[in-house]
Specification:
Order of helices and strands: EEHEHE
Radius of gyration: 14 Å
Structural class: alpha+beta
Shape: globular
Mean pLDDT: 84
Low-confidence stretches: none
Largest sheet: 4 strands, mixed
Number of domains: 1
């Protein structure tokens, strides 16, 4: 058991699930290791990028949040995640329900 994480970009309404296609651990110790970490690096890098990569610089300058499923609080840093029907909804749940999985 334990907490599981997504890498979330609220500005673009995207998230990456480290376990989805990357086969990475979705627990804290493995979120940005291996291929998932390399993809996130490509997406936020300011500098030489693979010109053939559709992800190159996609998230450059955006706030990126590692959102936990169990312990993430609703409305982190002023980002509205809760709704009247789901007052305890956190960013992890909101991303799963409303954002695009670009894993």
């Amino acid at each position: 058991m334990g907490q599981y994480f997504l890498v979330v970009n609220p500005a673009k309404k995207h998230y990456i699930d480290p376990a989805h296609l990357f086969g990475q651990s979705i627990k804290r110790g493995g979120i940005l290791k291996g291929y998932c970490g390399e993809v996130v690096e490509e997406m936020i890098r300011d500098g030489p990028r693979d010109p053939k990569s559709p992800l190159a610089g996609l998230w450059l300058g955006d706030v990126i949040i590692v959102a936990g499923d169990d312990y993430g609080e609703p409305n982190p840093a002023g980002l509205t995640t809760a709704t009247p029907a789901q007052p305890h909804r956190n960013l992890h749940r909101m991303a799963r329900e409303e954002y695009a999985d670009i894993s």
